[in-house]
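Supplementary Note 3. Input sequence used for the single-chain structure prediction.
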Amino acid sequence: MILGAVEGGGTTFELAVAEAPIGDAPPRWRARRTLPTTTPAQTLEAAASFLGEQGVEAVGFASFGPLDLGTGRLLRTPKPGWAGLDLRAPFAALGPVALETDVNAAALAEARWGDALGAPVGDPLAYVTVGTGVGGGLVVHGAPLHGRLHPEMGHLGSSAPDDFPGVCPFHGACVEGLASAPAIRARTGADPAALPDDHPVWQRVAAHLGELAGALALVASPEVIVFGGGVMKRAGLLDGIRARLEARQGAYLPRLPLLRRPALGEPGLAGALVLAAEAARAHLAR
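The predicted structure, written as discrete structure tokens, is reproduced below.
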């Protein structure tokens, strides 16, 4: 069976194809394509067309959110035309479609294949991405965590001292509003990538992300927290997060989560492949 993986982002859609079954080693793609994210109709039609040309029979879709996973629709999003869209429908003619948040999919892939690449894994495992926004996913007992919605960790508050009002349009000074790339840009007036490693803003960012790690440790007790995304490429940032976590929770919690970077180059896309395989398996079992 041919499986299709889709990772939908605000700038690009990443598409990949692999053969089932998927094994213990990270996927080896038989076809790849990158599409610019334009209008919903253009983007999703082009994605479905490519997968159809490859003979795909089941699709895993890791998407930006927030999502209503029951209906398969996007909820409130600043991306024009995407709110309320049914993300599964354009792919339904190909076969079963599994939809998940991009961060839950990334957590799923890191939990499945991290050890094959020499990275520590555990259950629960959390994945936090820090870039245009701050989002998080959580795998518990081998499956992505869902409830009435899905984890929205980036919108937790932070108790780290800071007089910056934040840039989140919903909460102002939540972790996303304080530590995302747009927040860094608003604080400094510069592209985050152009800032030196010793700029004081990185101490602020580390403090807020360390608060998020501490909240995760207290609420979900993950064995591992993986920090990914463009902002996390900054040298020394993970060490700063770890220091904040240890300072805030080390005296209380006897075992703190292990913090690491992603083992996979594209964990969201790899997680979409896991979703496709699970959708195919469930469909064949009916």
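The first strand starts at residue 2 and ends at 8. The mean pLDDT is 96.
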